[in-house]
Amino acid sequence: MKVMAIYAHPADPVTDCGGTLALHAARGDEVTIVSVTHGGRIHPNMLLEERRKANPDAALVSATREEVVALKRRELLEAAAILGVSNVITLDEDDNHVGVEAETVHRIAKTIASVQPDVILTDYPLNAAQPDTHTLATVMVLSALREVSMYVENLDNKPQTHIKQIYMTKLPTTARDALSLYGVRNDLFIDITPVVDKKLRAMHCFKSQGYDGDFAYKFIESHDGDRGRSAGVNFAEAYVRMYNETHAALPLTEHAKRKDALTAHRDYATINLRSIPL
Question: What is the C-alpha to C-alpha distance for residues 39 and 91, in angstroms, rounded to an integer?
Fold first, then answer.
């Protein structure tokens, strides 16, 4: 399988789907991370906190745009290596987009066509009326998918591309059934417990925006732990599937077969994340 994660900023594919990417990389799938923006303006914690010190580091407080961008890229490459992902593409768009831009759509489309992924992971577009960079990035990804689906090889000299499934993250609901929220919910959970140590260490790489140390522990404990509770495992990542799926027969997952309603509440609380060293 070819898996491509396309997100607005360098840290997003790690926080949102880093465990899933690590699982697919470990099983030999071709995994690609695409960061649409360089992330230089987002979460400038290290630089701004340094300015508050009595004796700030002169190199940090006077860092140029190019130096900040290079730092963000290094952090992403280090995190990707921990996850087992070697194919990292940074489009280096500025992260101050205020609307969908055609040239960026074309660049994303070109990237998708060059890799020809089977599935794409990206953000759920949360608020079209007041979009942030994450929503804008997803809208541009969806626009790019429309573009690549219409390529005709003999006319465009580009291969026609059809993505089999799109998995979207960040939908903030984890209801366990289709009735509780009238169908608006994450409808797929991936058990990342076997690779949670990799995700923890990958998040720890993003020191420039304060994602290291206690934040990495807390994020996975609260965010992925809550999704794990809904999924009946220790830690999980949640997705909304873009397209319906067709099966030869009614599917029943191995997890559903094994689940014991009497012990489920204990099964997802067997790991102490703080025992994993960084």
Answer: 11
Residue 244 contacts residue 170 (beta carbons within 8 Å): no
Q: Which two tokens stand for residue 130?
A: 């007041």
Contact partners, residue 231, CB within 8 Å, separation at least 6: 189, 191, 238, 255, 268
Q: Which residues pair with 247 in a beta bridge?
A: none
Q: What is the pLDDT along the chain (278 residues), one digit of tens a residue?
A: 999 999 999 999 999 999 999 999 999 999 999 999 999 888 888 888 878 888 888 888 888 889 889 999 999 999 999 999 999 999 999 888 778 899 999 999 999 999 999 999 999 998 877 878 899 999 999 999 999 998 887 777 777 888 999 999 999 888 888 888 888 899 999 999 999 999 999 999 999 999 999 999 999 999 999 999 989 899 999 999 999 999 999 999 998 898 888 887 777 888 899 999 99
Note whether 131 and 139 are within 8 A (CB): yes
pTM of the model: 0.93
Which residue intervals of the chain are DSSP H helices?
A: 12-26, 45-51, 58-61, 65-83, 102-115, 133-149, 153-156, 196-204, 214-219, 225-231, 254-258, 264-267
Residue 52: CA count within 13 A, CB half-sphere: 6
Query: 231 by DSSP, 3-state: which?
Result: helix
Q: Helix 12-26 crosses helix 196-204 at what angle (to 10 degrees)?
A: 140
The CA distances from residue 223 to 172, 192, 228, in Å, are 10, 12, 9
Contact present, 156 and 109 (Cβ < 8 Å): no
Residue type, 267: D
State the Cα–Cα distance between residues 43 and 191, nearest whole angstrom: 28
